[in-house]
Amino acid sequence: MYRDNPLKKISWQDFQTLSPEEKGPYFLRDTQPYHVLTAQQFDRPTLEGICDLATKIRMIGKTKGGIHFLQDLLSEKRAMLYFVQPSTRTFLSFYAACQIVGVKTSEVRDTTTSSEVKGESPEDTVRTFSSYFDMIIMRHPVGGFAERIAWLLSNSNRPVPVLNAGSGKDQHPTQALLDIYTLERSFENRAGVEGKKIAFVGDLARGRTVRSLATLLLLYPGVKQYFVAPKELQIGEDILRSLEKAGTEFEICDDFEQIIPEVDAIYMTRIQDEWDTAHESRLMDTSRYHFTARHLEMLKPGAVLLHPLPRRQEIACEVDFDPRAVYWRQVRNGMWVRAALILTIFDRGGEIDRYYEDLVG
After folding, report:
1. Domain range summary for the chain, segments of one domain joined by +
2. Rounded mean pLDDT of 109-114?
């Protein structure tokens, strides 16, 4: 099915010297996503194709016949969910996405239940998975580990696709895909995402979801990005350099209430204190960066509020009942987008298109 395997054409040493943008083409097969590792690997047509496919899957899945059709698409495939970092939504949405398209799953969620506890290297553990499964979906605390595995498997006698479900503090590309899909659906009657003002709020220094989404938004002309955080938790310089290189307008600020009336979307994040070395961020007062019921009066009528979750106090529970709070829809969208992504990787999107055309007649 896939003729090209770009990662076989480059050594690991040379691959490591490449920028994220330069690495992107190495994750494709026949111009389509194969390994899904970074936000930088996506272009606008691919994003639109995945979003369109997700919507069609949602519609097809509304009938019993449609559900049976979807479950037969990849019934011959097996996936390993290797999640050795805590996860609720990402794990369950990938699990549900596999069920939707018929992929059989197994899981390892704790290294103490695998031979890693005996001293086996993580690389050998994952290569063992590739002997039994057709896809590896992994979340790992070490940044760049998913890339290492993708290169290793591509140069083995059993190459299988690797999906990065969260890599250290660096990347979370599939979360960014569902975030884009949520924004697209939120603004579908308002000329789409292009030209919108989008604010990221909270722990931006260590929020991998922010880094990935900020990167994907570079593909949408006219978007202005705001980064609202205390100085200690502000967005990384590498992301700012990417925005500058792309000619994207952005603003760095620490006054949340000043920004609320200006923007079309607010992307809230929690404090990522699991990365603390000395509990330093737990001592910070971040209450200025919480969205309360009072702030709803400041928010534009057509604006939306997102959060990758889990949340703590940064969004008051009373806000949940406002129609502009779309983070629970955002959660469900993850299932549809990841199902669309899996079908794209295995080149089955055309079957969805044909079934959908017959459905809508």
Report:
1. 6-171+332-349, 173-331
2. 78
